[in-house]
Write a structure and sequence with these properties.
8 helices; rod-shaped
């Protein structure tokens, strides 16, 4: 999140400037309490951003695990279907239908769990014939194991998504708190150093060069040959 990164860098620089112009018994400046409030707001954003990134990583990990489990489940189904073809022949249409050979592809986790449960049942019913064609007892047992793993990861992923959503909201709220604290500090500086323009320059917000360049690149170019002068 580019805006968050830039705001954090701007806040860090502002803390440094405030510390440089710390209010003392003999000099006007930014009070220690105001600096502390700014630092707390800054630390809150960094902490919540880290938490949000970890939550996002959890969702990604569960998604990758599901993809691998889907691949393993599909490979096991294909192995079983090959054993069916070997045991009964491809001309046995009833067995081809029973084992969903030539059926629609499996695209979702829930569809895969349903298919694995079904395949375990029909493979168990025809275990005697299928084991003669290469299918093993462990393969049949794996239908259940893969389905359970997918079910568990699906639940965990949904919980991780909720955590990510909540942590994202908390991070965004902390960002607003930090921005509010930064605006307050700058208003104080504008008041305290009203007659010291050179000092006020140090309190000015950083220029987001990346955002500025990006905005300029999105500005539609003027038509070639056009001028503001009329009649030429």
């Amino acid at each position: 999140m580019e805006k968050l990164y830039f705001t954090v860098q701007d806040a860090k620089a502002l803390v440094g400037t405030c510390t440089k112009y710390l209010k003392t018994d003999s000099t006007e400046g930014i009070s220690q309490n105001d600096i502390q409030a700014l630092q707390v707001a800054l630390d809150g954003v960094v902490e919540k951003d880290t938490r949000q990134k970890k939550a996002m990583e959890m969702v990604t990990n569960f998604t990758e695990f599901q993809k691998k489990s889907m691949d393993v489940g599909l490979a096991l189904i294909r192995k079983t279907q090959n054993a069916v073809k070997a045991a009964y022949g491809e001309d046995n249409k009833s067995k081809m239908r029973e084992f969903h050979i030539g059926g629609n592809g499996i695209r979702t986790v829930k569809a895969m769990m349903s298919e694995l449960k079904y395949m375990k049942g029909v493979a168990t019913d025809h275990k005697g014939d299928l084991t003669k064609s290469g299918l093993k007892d462990n393969d049949i047992a794996n239908f259940g194991a893969i389905s359970t793993a997918l079910s568990d990861s699906d639940t965990q992923q949904e919980n991780a998504k909720k955590i990510e959503k909540r942590s994202t909201k908390e991070r965004d709220n902390s960002m607003k708190t930090l921005q509010k604290a930064m605006r307050r500090i700058r208003r104080i500086a504008n008041s305290v150093f009203a007659d010291q323009p050179s000092v006020l320059i140090e309190f000015e917000p950083m220029i987001d060069k990346h955002y500025k360049a990006k905005k300029q690149s999105q500005t539609p170019p003027t038509q070639s040959g056009r001028t503001n002068k009329q009649g030429k």
